[in-house]
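Consider a concrete sample entry:
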Amino acid sequence: MKYRRDISSTLKLLALGLILFLGYQVWLKPTYFTPVVPPLSAIEPTPPSAPFVLHEFQEHHQWDVPPSRLVDLGSPPNQALGAVREELDRGNYTEVERRLKQQSLQSVVHASSRHYIAGLWNNLGIQQEKFGGTSLSVKAFKQSVLWDSKNSVAHLNLTQAYWELRDPAMTPQFLETVIRLAPQDPFPHLALADLLIATGQAGSAAAHIDQARPRAERDPNHHSYLQRLTAKLEAIEPVRTAMKEDARPPQPAPAPITPSPKPQATEHPVPALEPARQADTSKMASPQAPPPAPTQSDRAHFTVQFDGPPDQASWTRMRAILEYAHDELSQKLGRIPSKPIAVVLHTNHKFTGTAGSPLWADSLFDHASRTIHLPTQGALEDLALFSRIARHECVHALLFEQAKGSPAKVPRWIVEGLALQLAEDPWPDLEEAEHKASTLIPLTSLQEDWKPLVANAVPKAYLEARSATQLLVDSYGLHGIQQVIQLLQAGHSLDAAMQQKLSVSYEQFRKQWEQAMNQPNPGSL
């Protein structure tokens, strides 16, 4: 017979423990451990929290972009531009840029469409700046200004980009245009004052600082810049006082400046210009002048002769643009020319020519004497056009120096391609031709003079030269191309020079380039 174990004592102990626990919870537990529930009347409704969205999938209005930098697009003037707007809102920036590049100033005649395209370019630049930086967005801002020359928002964005990049295109004339479009914004005044201080024009700089001060003092983004410029201005206050005293007696007319009957390319300044130059230097003082503003030592970069009546005022403005271009392009090339670049100003000729491509600029540069030729009548009415022409001639002059006076030994496509690569200026005809289907011109046909080319093939030739040199730069760097040029100067063939310095034959490179050009978008090389 089996007996079961008696567990009654165990059950009694469990029951007693349960009773003690319940009694503690009901009567003995301290109340200060229990959270106080506020009355219902004290409860305030909490606003619903925004849904969490990954950064790369956020909508554009959620990004921290100051509204003043964006253009209010409004309703699209047509369905095609509305589709581009939708792509921009979706974040398809590559597609937006591709579609906008397909538009040309010649084909879009309605002002509303032009303004809308300018706004799209501006807002695209704002978004590109987030992942590509200012060096990428500045191109979109340039296009925006090109489409709408009265768009103050785009001009301000372009000014900011120029300032961050120390771009030589940020000239006093450009800043004066921005000030006319946005007179209340302090930044263009401060940027212009910075340039004026660097060139010793303290009085004009002080006027712009005074105009910007009320708003700049309240803006933390501009306050520190205002303080730096004020300190610079105070440092040259004695010079400013001397300038005011010197300005009281009437200045002599530029009668002693007489042009050469037949201007010749020269390595030294024209003697007739020396009095004007000395008068200039007596009034110019630029302590702590930030780059890329020209300093005292930069004044030997260019010499000038006048073909026609002298125009010292135009030369002063043109020289500033050339000096900025010289500083920027010399830095890219990694060398400074050993002698000044000769400039001939044709004061009896109008500044008219083919503005859509560098062809006219190439015709103005004398490849035999390394001389820049510039017509002056109307040249400064369109500063963007003049800057493109002058910078293209300047880069040719620097490449001429690089080739040690033997540019004929360097293939034309390398020279023109490097000029486009280094200057990085937009040319309307090239941008338009980039999206047109056309037959590929053999690279071997672009080595000599391009005069035999028909007119409608010239933009294609420039595009091919740019893409070929870009492939070289991407693959071997600018230094590699410079080494090839040195061997070409020494008498080597192009194939031998590329084999020795790049370890690739000219034929191999040409096939690589043709394969790249046959891709769907060769312009993106």
